[in-house]
Amino acid sequence: MSTVLLTALALIAYLVATGSVLLRIFHPQGPHFKTTFSAAIIGLVLHMLVLAAMLFTEQGQNFSLLNVSSLVCWLITVAITLTALRTPTILLLPVVYGFASLVQLAVLTLPHSVQLQHFEQDIILLLHIMLAFIAYAILIMAMLYSFQVSYISNRLKQKDFAAMTRHMPPLVQAEVLQFRILLAGTVLLGVALLIAAVFMDNWLAKENLHKNVFSLIGFGVFVVLCWGHARKGWRGKTANILTITGAALLTLGYFGSRFVREVLLNTL
């Protein structure tokens, strides 16, 4: 089966998952979760098959910007889906599945570039990239959870209980999960940066400097936030702003530099 057909089917599955949540997101009985998760799992499996075909080629591993974006999207979608099976995350599901739909649409419509790697020749680089991607996906999850916490908090302050359903988590539970995810992502990011600094000779090379500076600043923001929450009780608006800032810095560091090199410079 062609990757185009698989991508189209994944797009449809994600759209079904998104629609099934949005149509009944504030209904007292909640969405039809069997439909939602069935469609989401089908989308994830198809998405994984497309990724495998696009990433792993006979010439090497194609880590183009589009492929990397699709990989990170898949990691985030898997993580949110698994979390949603155990804890209420109804507000995040349409955001994540909707974004996954957009990524599939991009894969179908945008031109595919080639950026070959040979990770079998550099296991340390592979370990660094794997940890960095997983850390990034987890920290984006933390940012999404901060949006959910903010929404629930605002509804409670305005005594708008009609917008709350049994499928939304209690505020305290949502905050605890947010900071647990944040801590896990920060630790993994720190390990990924440490491996790069110690074992990679070109860590401070010109082509990597932009990415590493933004990544280190983003890591510093997350460390400060974790410290502030543990010692000073930071939460709410302060935590949300710092989480969004850290996630934005990481995004600029990697995807921003890749976008400039692969898209803007190639079109000038």
From TrEMBL:
Query: What's a GO biological-process term for it?
Result: cytochrome complex assembly
| UniProt keyword terms in alphabetical order | Membrane, Transmembrane, Transmembrane helix
Chain ranges of the Cytochrome c assembly protein domain = 40-264
Q: GO cellular component annotations, sorted alphabetically?
A: plasma membrane
Q: By its UniProt entry, which InterPro entries does this protein fall under?
A: Cyt_c_assembly, YpjD/HemX
Q: Where are the transmembrane segments?
A: 35-56, 63-85, 91-111, 123-147, 177-200, 212-230, 236-255
| GO MF | heme binding
Which Pfam families does the annotation name? Cytochrom_C_asm
Output the PANTHER family linked to this UniProt entry: INNER MEMBRANE PROTEIN YPJD (PTHR38034)
What is the name listed in the Swiss-Prot or TrEMBL entry for this protein? ABC-type uncharacterized transport system, permease component
Q: Which source organism?
A: Rheinheimera pacifica
